[in-house]
């Protein structure tokens, strides 16, 4: 039995970090995906041991665990695909031991948390069955484009697709789950994100699961629809960072300065709400489209200023902002910051040569520019 899944990455147009503290944020899926191939293998014929194998193609690593090792390490494994559950502290310690035995080089140790998330999802959904899972991604890892969420969503979806918890008709081509299955996948993916991020808001896994553009607050999503296409340039500073550490840093700052930081989060809440109103406002001609884009640009700049207040900007992000500003383009970091990716709005009437000159200058500075379609598809699966 075999299934494939793909789940998109995302950009956050407004509200990252503040959303962890209850503010509204606006996010959209992008057309860069994490792909998973999941094959359930038949149980071994003899009394020999089967394996669970995980191949992470992007980082050129393959892990495998004999089922007997997993059975011995966990006190109890009761697969319950329909009941998403958190990883207990006790099981997290077991995961740390199992992954620790694989001797991941120190320089790549941040990959461990993704492997913990995989093992938690696998054993909770399928228990002890031999299987092979292969993961590849179009997304740069750990760069603010939601690689961890699309990893968790695509893995959860592939695992769920081969259980009785779904009643999907196995037609040809890429298929979408029904709402009940999407909700279930989203909940499992959130449990995976908790292992990778510590304290996620759930926005990244939600937009990766459901796609499109969403306004998100305290676990609730509202779909929004742009009345004019939004063209965004994504610049990867290539400065590595870790979302868990950045989220924890903002919480520590909020603990030290509760009143000031609550005001910052409240200001972001207004920015995100206004951003979604502007995105949905009618724009039928060049004048109204330009007015709308100017408002979005101003809101992006205001949000960037508040992200600086939260302490999550970075010299590399500031360098991208200075370059794009030379071309009168507005930018903000996207995702957790601290390096990673920067978003720049490319206005509809911007002449191509200006955009090209800005991209050339960014790339000459060692940054990597990506163009992505915004607000597209969410999770899909295929049985072919
Ligand atoms: N394709 C993949 N292969 C292996 N591990 C992955 C993959 N995608 C994500 N991960 C895991 O997710 C981690 C990166 O997650 P992190 O939350 O720090 O960054 P991000 O999700 O790309 O950015 P953001 O959370 O700001 O959107 C990696 O270190 C790894 O553990
Ligand atoms: C930084 C953050 O707000 C977004 C990361 O893409 C964290 C989260 O919401 O889980
Ligand atoms: Mg992440």
UniProtKB/TrEMBL annotation:
Reaction(s) the record says it catalyses: (R)-mevalonate + ATP = (R)-5-phosphomevalonate + ADP + H(+)
GHMP kinase N-terminal domain mapped to chain residues: 124-211
InterPro entries: GHMP_kinase_C_dom, GHMP_kinase_C_sf, GHMP_kinase_N_dom, GHMP_knse_ATP-bd_CS, Mev_gal_kin, Ribosomal_Su5_D2-typ_SF, Ribsml_uS5_D2-typ_fold_subgr
PANTHER family: MEVALONATE KINASE
Localization per record: Cytoplasm
Keyword Ion transport: no
Keyword Electron transport: no
Coiled-coil ranges (or none): none
Pathway given in the UniProt record: Isoprenoid biosynthesis; isopentenyl diphosphate biosynthesis via mevalonate pathway; isopentenyl diphosphate from (R)-mevalonate: step 1/3
Protein name, UniProt field: Mevalonate kinase
Family: Belongs to the GHMP kinase family. Mevalonate kinase subfamily.
Alphabetized UniProt keyword annotations: ATP-binding, Cytoplasm, Kinase, Lipid biosynthesis, Lipid metabolism, Magnesium, Metal-binding, Nucleotide-binding, Steroid biosynthesis, Steroid metabolism, Sterol biosynthesis, Sterol metabolism, Transferase
């Amino acid at each position: 039995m075999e299934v494939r899944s793909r789940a998109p990455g995302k950009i956050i147009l407004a509200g990252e970090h503040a959303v962890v503290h209850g503010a509204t944020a606006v996010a959209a899926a992008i057309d860069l995906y994490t792909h998973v191939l999941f094959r359930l293998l038949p149980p071994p014929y003899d009394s020999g041991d089967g394996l669970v194998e995980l191949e992470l193609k992007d980082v050129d690593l393959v892990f495998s665990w004999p089922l007997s090792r997993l059975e011995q390490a966990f006190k109890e494994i009761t697969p319950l695909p329909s009941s998403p559950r958190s990883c207990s502290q006790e099981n997290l310690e077991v995961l740390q031991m199992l992954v620790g035995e694989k001797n991941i080089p120190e320089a790549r140790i941040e990959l461990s948390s993704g492997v913990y998330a995989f093992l938690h999802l696998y054993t909770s959904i399928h228990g002890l069955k031999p299987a092979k899972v292969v993961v590849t991604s179009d997304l740069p890892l750990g760069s603010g484009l939601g690689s961890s969420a699309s990893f968790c969503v695509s893995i959860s979806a592939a695992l769920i697709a081969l259980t009785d918890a779904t009643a999907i008709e196995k037609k040809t081509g890429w298929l979408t789950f029904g709402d009940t299955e999407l909700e279930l996948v989203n909940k499992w993916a959130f449990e995976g994100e908790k292992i990778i991020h510590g304290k996620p808001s759930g926005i990244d896994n939600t937009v990766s699961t459901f796609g499109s553009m969403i306004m998100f607050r305290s676990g609730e999503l509202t779909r929004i629809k742009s009345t004019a296409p939004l063209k965004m340039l994504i610049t990867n500073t290539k400065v590595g960072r870790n979302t868990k550490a950045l989220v924890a840093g903002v919480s520590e700052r909020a603990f030290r300065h509760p009143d000031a930081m609550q005001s910052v989060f409240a200001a972001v809440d207004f920015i995100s709400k206004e951003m979604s109103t502007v995105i949905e406002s009618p724009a039928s001609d060049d004048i109204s489209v330009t007015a709308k884009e100017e408002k979005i640009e101003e809101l992006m700049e205001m949000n960037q200023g508040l992200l600086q207040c939260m302490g999550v900007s970075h010299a590399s992000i500031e360098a991208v902002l200075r370059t794009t500003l030379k071309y009168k383009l507005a930018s903000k970091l996207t995702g957790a910051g601290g390096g990673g990716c920067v978003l720049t709005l490319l206005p509809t009437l911007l002449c191509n040569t200006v955009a090209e000159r800005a991209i050339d200058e960014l790339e000459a500075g060692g940054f990597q520019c990506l163009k992505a379609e915004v607000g597209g598809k969410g999770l899909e699966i295929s049985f072919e």
